[in-house]
Design a protein that fits this description.
eight-stranded antiparallel beta barrel, 225 residues, 12 strands, 1 helix
């Protein structure tokens, strides 16, 4: 009888032990921790090499006329926009230049003493040009050469002075302007030097047939916005 009970007790003990361990075996594994949320803020896209692309520059210099005018003082103001293509190397600009020059004219007239006359003819030129320009390098370069050209409107005023009398003659002519130079980044903008060529034909009473051509040198400072 005892021999029969011993195997039965062993079987019941093994069964109870297996039943006690079954819930632990069937419990689901712990879920993996959720990845931390990415809280890094996305940086805004940077603006162009020089922000909005606007360019303003001031310049001073001198212009040597190709006609009989005297060498004169030249001052300029230019407002430009660098187009948002080709790394902002292509652009358009409106230029305003002032030139003070003049010449002395003479002639013959039997109505005046000695039959000859002469007159000093100061001339003020206000030149408005519409220019397309090209910069050979992008804004990552410190030294950038450039060229530009376009049509120009010449507003002229002659004030001839003869025998103490002063007269005034105004006229408007159409011509063109070509410019080329280089700027060097310095401070918030760039210093620049450039060569300016201009031309317009003209026929006025004083000082007669001539042209408004000339070659000028200018230096100035350019600011990018």
């Amino acid at each position: 009888m005892v021999r029969r009970l011993v195997p039965l007790v062993l079987i019941l003990s093994i069964t109870e032990l297996a039943a006690a361990q079954e819930p632990l075996a069937s419990a689901p594994a712990s879920a993996p921790a959720a990845p931390a949320a990415d809280v890094t803020a996305t940086a805004p896209a940077p603006a162009g090499p020089h922000g909005t692309g606007l360019v303003v520059d001031l310049s001073v210099g001198a212009l040597v006329p190709t006609s009989k005018y005297d060498t004169g003082f030249l001052g300029g103001l230019r407002l430009g926009y660098r187009l948002p293509w080709l790394a902002q190397r292509l652009g358009v600009a409106v230029g305003l230049a002032y030139l003070r020059t003049g010449r002395t004219v003479s002639g013959t007239d039997p109505r005046v003493p000695d039959g000859t006359w002469s007159a000093d003819v100061p001339t003020d030129q206000l030149v408005i040009d519409l220019e397309i320009f090209w910069r050979f390098f992008d804004a990552s370069h410190r030294l950038v050469p450039y060229v530009g050209a376009g049509p120009a409107l010449f507003l002229l005023r002659d004030t001839p002075k003869t025998y103490g009398a002063e007269n005034t003659e105004d006229s408007t002519q159409v011509g063109f302007v070509v410019q080329g130079g280089a700027d060097y980044r310095l401070g918030p903008g760039a210093v620049f030097g450039e060569v300016r060529a201009q031309y317009a034909g003209v026929n006025r009473t004083v000082p007669g047939d001539h042209n408004l051509g000339g070659i000028g040198l200018q230096v100035g400072y350019r600011v990018f916005f």
